[in-house]
Amino acid sequence: MVNYGGDEVCALVIDIGFSSLRAGYAGDDTPKAIIPTHYGYTPATPDADVAMGDGTDGGEASNKSKYANIYIGQNGPSIWRPGMEIGNPITDGLISDFNPIPPLIRHALQDVMRVEANEHPILVTEPTWNTPANRERMAEIMFEEFQVPAFYIANTGVLNAFAAGKGSALVIDIGQTVASVTPVVDGFVLRKGLHQATLLYSARSSKHSPGLSHSPLPRFIHGLSKGLLTNATNYRGPIELWPHQLIASKITNPSNPNQPKTLPSLITESLRACDPELRQVLMGNVVLTGGGSLFTGLLDRLNAEMARTFPHAKIHAPGNPIERRYGGWLGGSILASLGTFHQLWISKEEWQEHGKAIVGQRCK
To answer: Which SUPFAM superfamilies does this entry report, sorted A to Z (predicted)?
Structure first.
């Protein structure tokens, strides 16, 4: 049996989000592999195999799947192919389709990082509202498909607090599709205070314009928004960004990303759900993280909003955009590199002995 009690086990950390999958070595300050989570695919016919590969590298493998072909990597979904559609395994922050997850992970580890999963313990991040079924399925993929020697799944709320150097914090995480507020006390999530909301752009794209999910347009809009959008200091109405009907109908004002729930209302609801004696600790340790928190002016706007309701709140927002964009991964990198953490790994032997039940028992 492999001993994971030492200080160095050369663990890998994987953080899967709607925009990208991040992978790297525990102890590093940035991920080695950052690949798009979007992928191209053509539906499978009965008894068909799936061919997987980057759009340019052409590495292929075969497995039974609902996809006839799946195209992943930086160029995979960007090159037009007859009958190809664009997919994403993440819905409202959770993995809703596990079929493309193994190909995405395999591409990040083998093709980009040039490492074998069966030679490294792997820590995978999860959103605070993840389901037990999803956690167990991820463990099954790691142990059964990748044959990892050890596995752990960790909460991004706690990891973002660790990345900011805090054991207790109110973590405000703004991703590409979901914003969440998570109270963390002494390294544990207060689930009664967890509040999240789907961002307005994500909701409109998927519900009101379903055709967008099958085209490269969402990626184009995402790139455009990073370069053009800013956050108003005072919200008075919609901001006209572009005269063209196509763009104007798909991009919305980021000042109200969680309509009808605003970010301040999520924070207020979260704090009110916590015990009064804990609120002061949380308000003194507010952590702002996530790629969506990098919009120009958002931090100033949030400070102004918080000052009205919680004048003693102190917001910690790293000036380095890498730390905010990849806070969940960075927290996992810190956690998996600690010698005191290694007793928590689920070993392959424990998985074979206890099965899925060990995931809920070990990963709290």
So the answer is: Actin-like ATPase domain (SSF53067)
**CB within 8 A of 266, min separation 6: which ones?**
179, 180, 181, 195, 196, 197, 258
Distance CA 332, CA 156 (A): 8
Rounded CA gap, 167 and 154, in Å?
15
Inter-residue contact 159 to 140 (CB < 8 Å): no
pLDDT tens digits for range 168-222:
999 999 998 899 999 999 999 999 999 998 875 444 444 434 444 444 545 544 5
Q: Give Dmax over CA atoms of the chain in angstroms.
A: 64
Contact 53, 11 (CB under 8 A): no
End-to-end CA distance of the chain: 24
Is 196 in contact with 179 (CB distance < 8 Å)? yes
332, 125 in Cβ contact below 8 A? yes
Q: Sorting pLDDT into bands at 50, 70 and 90, what band is 23? A: very high
- Mean pLDDT lowest among 249-263, 329-343, 344-358: 249-263
Give the contacts of 52 (CB within 8 A, at least 6 positions apart). Answer: 59, 60, 61, 63, 69, 70, 71, 72, 103, 106, 107
- b vs e for 220-238, b when ≥16 Cβ sit within 10 Å of the residue's Cβ? ebeeebeeebebbeeeeee
- Between strands 67-72 and 49-54, the pairing is parallel
Whether residue 160 has pLDDT greater than 60:
yes
C-alpha dihedral (185, 189, 193, 194), degrees to nearest 10: 140
Does the pTM surpass 0.85? The reply is: no
Q: Report whether 14 contacts 123 (CB < 8 A).
A: yes
Report the C-alpha gap between 27 and 161 in whole angstroms.
16
Residue 157 tokens read as 């709320």
Average pLDDT for residues 335-347, to the nearest whole number? 93
